[in-house]
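Hi all, long-time lurker, first post. I run a small reading group and we've been trying to get comfortable going from sequence to structure in the token notation. Rather than ask abstract questions, I figured I'd post a concrete chain and ask someone more experienced to write out its structure so we can walk through it together at our next meeting. Sequence below, copied exactly:
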Amino acid sequence: MTSTTHTSLRRGIPTSIAANGTASGVTKKPTEYLDISSSDPDSDVSGQIPPSVGDLPYLQFLTFHKLPNLVGPIQPTIAKLTKLKSLIITNTGISGPVPDFLSQLTNL
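-- Answer (accepted) --
Happy to help. Here is the structure in token form:
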């Protein structure tokens, strides 16, 4: 049985991902849920989705919510998340078309 870890970050996005699929400073267990959101409209989370998010091989649920300063396209490294069942991107500055590489994620 796999243990489930739910991670909710309020002040930033993990920029370092360990080789075993854990986000640096977030959890020691394989990360299956990553909820990056903010209740603060002036959140200091800005820039693009970090490519390192694709280095979480056990990730099943990924949410980016209420992050207006999170901009740019959906990162191609998300295609490496083969266990991903849910990808939610709402109320962000993410722009562009839905990328074709998301069709590779057959569990979505």
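A couple of things your group might point at:
Residues 1-28 have pLDDT under 50 and may be disordered.
Strands lie at 6-9, 33-37, 61-72, 86-94.
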